[in-house]
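Email to the structure team, subject: mitogen-activated protein kinase kinase model.

Hi all, the expression group asked for a predicted structure before they design truncation constructs. Nothing fancy, just the tokens so they can compare against earlier work. One-line instruction: predict mitogen-activated protein kinase kinase, return tokens.
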Amino acid sequence: MDNVCFQQRLRDLETRVRKWKFLRLGLTEVRLRPRDRRSTSVDQKHKECSSTSSSPQHQRPNNIGYLTSPMERKFTPLSMKPSPSRRDTEKDALEFEYMEGYKKSGTLDIDGVKQTVDPNEIQILGLLGSGSCGVVESAMVRKKLMAVKTMYKNDNKENLKRILRDVRIMSLCDSPFIVRSYGYFMFNSSVKICMQIMSACCEKLLRRIYHSKLDFFPEYVAGHIVYSAISALDYLKEKHSIIHRDIKPSNILFDDSGNIKLCDFGISGFMTNSMSHSKSAGCPPYMAPERLTIETNSKYDVRSDVWSLGITIYQLVTGLYPFPLKDLEFTTLTIIANLNLPSPSLKEEKTRSFSPLFIEFLDFCLRKDVRERPEYKQLMKHDFFLEYDPASGDAYKLKNINGNCNQVAEWFNNVIKQSKVEDELKQIPNTPCVN
Ligand SMILES: Nc1ncnc2c1ncn2[C@@H]1O[C@H](COP(=O)(O)OP(=O)(O)OP(=O)(O)O)[C@@H](O)[C@H]1O
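Reply from the structure team: attached below.
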């Protein structure tokens, strides 16, 4: 790439980072003041359920979660901006979809039994986490323990899109590697998705590990994460033409039995001809180089999620986000986007040793040039993946014979036992800040 072209791309990138900041702050302000929301034209099917509303301490202060939260990106050149009437039509369509959603509101499928549930039956037990769009709480509903994600609706079209996508995609999915949805409740100004409860996300585990000075994620746990995440992503692509677009440690969850599942489809997209065309969404520190460059960001494929998974895995096994974050995020994104700078590699890791297969696998995922980065089907043929694939291989069978099949559960429960829950809220140096 010649210097002039690269300089131009840097300037584009800088402009976009500024817009991210601006839009992020705008969105946060709206979200943090749910009572200020303007009323909508949607008829209220259910009254907002006071016993299930989140308390003020569940609202996130607006100076955190900045770098890892999905941010809206709209860079349509002025001449291509849709006319106001077209924008309104799109908003109307979203409002219509929201109203249509009311029809299934309150119908939960709990252990194979469809039942109509009143929102007052949701008994909130405690906070599990919070994201840029709402909070996730543990709750008891008809004697079933579940996670309930509450997202607040406001006048912002992107916010509405995000809520509808999360509801729609969660209802569509039926995979052992994706958190299951039991159903949802729609209100005038919020939505509650009831889902399978998990024990902890990778982000929280990493924080507990770091502050208790335990060893970071072992290679075999990373192998199981890779197997589960790629199986989930391949399922989304093949069965529903969906690209996740927000792979990061907080969206990969563990349960006590060692199952690993993906969650959070708020910024996922539907693909046409295997390409995503949306300009919105993403979490900058985990975004692939091609998504950070102006000429390719509006057209990319699932290999962008392969990069995000690679960065996530690198972070889990080393305890470090692989790019410097102490500086402004603009510098970080510039380093990621510059194809002339090397990708992170476990080859350089001095403190822990990893198998050559694992190092090679991660190097494939972290190829900066998207044309050289493999798709899921190629990764699924790699020996590192096959080692963790129960359908594939001798290596996996051998592990089972040796009684190691529940190694992940054992590791997970040991981490929980040896670390403190309060550490889940403490930061780790040079790691993107989440919720
Ligand atoms: N089904 C679940 N069971 C247990 N905990 C969950 C579940 N779903 C989400 N969580 C927890 O809640 C946190 C917030 O989830 P959510 O999907 O709202 O946001 P996020 O991905 O962390 O952030 P953002 O929405 O900004 O990307 C997760 O990081 C996780 O720790």
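The radius of gyration is 21 Å. The chain has a mean pLDDT of 80. Ping us if the truncation boundaries need rechecking.
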